Amino acid sequence: MPKSKRNNIVTLSKTKKKGREHKEQVVNGIRQALDEYSSVYVFSFENMRNSKFKEFREKLKSSSRLFLGSNNVMKVALGRSHSDEAKPGIHKLSKILGGHSGLFFTNLATSDVRRLFDEYEELDFARTGTAATEKVELMEGPLEQFTHEMEPFLRKQGIPVRLNKGVIELVSDFVVCKEGEPLSPESARILRLLGMKMASFRLHLLCRWSPDEFEVYKQDLDLSSDIDSS
Fold it and tell me: Is Nucleus a UniProt keyword of this protein (predicted)?
């Protein structure tokens, strides 16, 4: 008789220890950075793309350091109030950390930092659920941008197509997406096939702390944009 898997005992001690150690590393890293860099910024992001963020981080590694992760862990590192703050006045950053945000430590001049963040934008293919930025419609007729082998795949995406002498033909006009409406999985795949990028990965500065100054740049940003693991 096969052994029941319900009775298997799984220990979580190693997982818990690993999680605790990681949190301690983040806290220690942030507190070390407080001594190494002259300014700290809180930033938010939309349409996160990990590969693009790593490139941004690599570009600035000689002068700066960025932290992403649990807001609560970062708040512990900074301090939540006057009584436990790591540096005088830095607990104010904890009050702004929220949603999808991070910390940027740097020795760069404030003007250079604001220019870097204001100018940074990376376009990418939108994921399911992202609001379409424009209406996309395919018109009846041949779809010569696709090879005949793709006809079954296009049909599975709900596109009314047929093969006509080896050429994929759209039987009737087809709306891929409408502006402002969330993309379905099929719409997202079709837009990728069409090479249309509707997602904009952006970083926004919210505030800055230095030993002699605290500035708030934006307080009304929506920090609820989904994190993407690409």
Answer: yes
Task: State which amino acid sits at residue 105.
Answer: F
Asked whether residue 78 is assigned to any structural domain, the reply reads: yes
pLDDT at 226 over 60: no
Mean pLDDT across the stretch 148-163?
Answer: 92
- Is 170 in contact with 138 (CB distance < 8 Å)? yes
CATH number at residue 152: 3.90.105.20
Q: How many whole angstroms separate alpha carbon 122 and alpha carbon 131?
A: 17
Of 198 and 19, more confident = 198
Rg over alpha carbons for the chain, rounded to the nearest Å, is 24
Three-state DSSP class for residue 181: coil
Q: Please report which residue ranges of 97-163 form alpha helices under DSSP H.
A: 110-119, 151-156
Distances (CA, A) of 146 to 52, 141, 161, 164, 176: 29, 12, 11, 13, 16
Using CB atoms within 10 A of its CB, is residue 163 exposed (0-12), middle (13-18) or buried (19+)?
exposed
What's the average model confidence in pLDDT over 141-167?
91
Give tens-digit pLDDT for 60-117.
989 999 998 889 999 999 998 888 888 999 999 999 998 889 999 999 999 999 999 9
* Residue 223 belongs to some domain of the structure: no
